[in-house]
Design brief:
Helix content: 10-25%
Strand order of the largest sheet: 2-1-6-7-8-9-10
Number of strands: 19
Structural class: alpha+beta
Number of helices: 11
């Protein structure tokens, strides 16, 4: 699990920005939202332009550097903080895998140009690789004690990824745990314009065809029914032979896509990806409920809270979810553009399950100037 990330000179973040998921409390409710002392399910609030979307994209930099999964192409004038003379974006990810602590740090001189990598295991510096200076290359990991100084990788190649591919790594080795976590990361937006995602895989079938191919059409109909949409769904083929979902009305069948609203389209998107959630290590959904009625958003929040192992981070503006029914004060974060903190750090009071977090948020009772712990 990721316990903390630090990012600098990346998009809208000029100075070192820290998001700590390990600052948890001993609340007696919604215990499933915490795993091994780390936030496992988080809601992120903040005004438009604060940087919530950028924060989720920063997480996906781990997938971009360590995997061949779908990634975003970003011009350098957008990738770095605008107006900064600093030409290195820095990332530092802290992990907890059982009793093993891993810190992976890297810098990039362009969206696809790695400058350096560092790896720490249980506070021991075990790896460093500079793409520009052979004097700053060493590795003390078992099975990787070869002439690292003579290995010159292309500037878009990660040395950690190189070790995973070219050396024998036990599945419990730090390299394997790190790369396998990155391979299981998924980011997507609930947009009506197709399936825009990062990580997890390369290429994707149509939502309809994949649901049908996995024999999930009845389950998808049940999922929609729980959201108040009662459709009789059947499989169809379009003129090109592609499988698609149809809706049967008495003796008439129409394509699902032709009658689905914006919100219903995004329900199909979240259902499509939910078929993969149990295989995921981290799921990041930006504006996950932008097109939903508040009741539907509530149902989905409860559903996502029940997903097993995956760390799930959601950005939202829906204050109904700002409630101990769906979250807790150490799993609900406020991003003000300069910092991000859990709710309990933004108030001097002791929180209880019955507290009305939504009212407090609307009344501006959470002050970023407080530093309670």
């Amino acid at each position: 699990m990721i316990t903390k990330i630090e990012i600098e000179n990346y998009r809208g973040y000029q100075n070192c920005f820290i998001y700590d998921l390990s600052a948890t409390k001993q609340y007696g409710f919604n215990k499933e939202l915490i795993k091994s002392g780390v936030v496992n399910k988080a809601l992120i609030y903040g005004p438009n332009g604060a940087g919530k979307s950028t924060l989720l994209l920063a997480f996906m930099e781990l997938s971009a550097i360590l995997t061949d999964s779908n990634r975003e192409i970003v011009p350098d004038n957008i990738y770095f903080y605008a107006g900064s003379d600093n030409k290195i974006a820095r990332f530092k990810f802290h992990f907890k895998f059982g009793d093993t602590k891993i810190v992976y740090e890297w810098g990039k001189s362009g969206w696809d140009k790695i400058s350096y990598e560092k790896l720490f295991v249980n506070d021991v510096h075990v790896l460093e690789y500079s793409h520009t200076d052979a004097a700053h290359r060493f590795c003390s990991l078992e099975g990787a004690d070869f002439g690292i100084a003579s290995i010159q990788l292309a500037d878009n190649q990660s040395f950690v990824k190189f070790l995973k591919v070219n050396t024998l790594q036990d599945e419990n080795s730090p390299i394997s745990m790190l790369v396998n976590f990155a391979r299981g990361m998924l980011y997507f937006k609930n947009l009506i314009h197709g399936n825009q995602y990062l990580g997890f895989t390369n290429g994707v079938d149509s939502l309809d065809s994949r649901i049908i191919a996995n024999n999930k059409l009845d389950d998808f109909a049940s999922f929609l029914k729980k959201q108040g949409l009662n459709y009789n769904l059947i499989p169809l083929r379009d003129l090109s032979g592609q499988m698609m979902i149809g809706v049967k009305f008495n003796n008439r069948v129409v394509p699902f896509d032709s009658i689905a609203s914006s919100g219903t389209h995004t329900l199909e998107l979240i259902y499509y990806w939910s078929m993969q959630f149990e295989k995921a290590t981290m799921v990041l959904i930006d504006e996950f409920d932008a097109y939903y009625h508040s009741d539907v958003a509530a149902n989905l929040a409860l559903m996502l809270n029940k997903v097993g192992n995956a760390q799930i981070l959601l950005t939202t503006h829906n204050t109904r979810l700002f409630s101990n029914e769906f979250t807790r004060p150490d799993c609900c974060f406020v991003h003000d553009g300069k910092s991000i903190k859990p709710v309990y750090m933004l108030s001097d009071r002791e929180f209880r399950k019955g507290d009305n977090l939504e009212k407090m948020y609307r009344d501006n009772d959470f002050s970023v100037n407080r530093h309670s712990v």
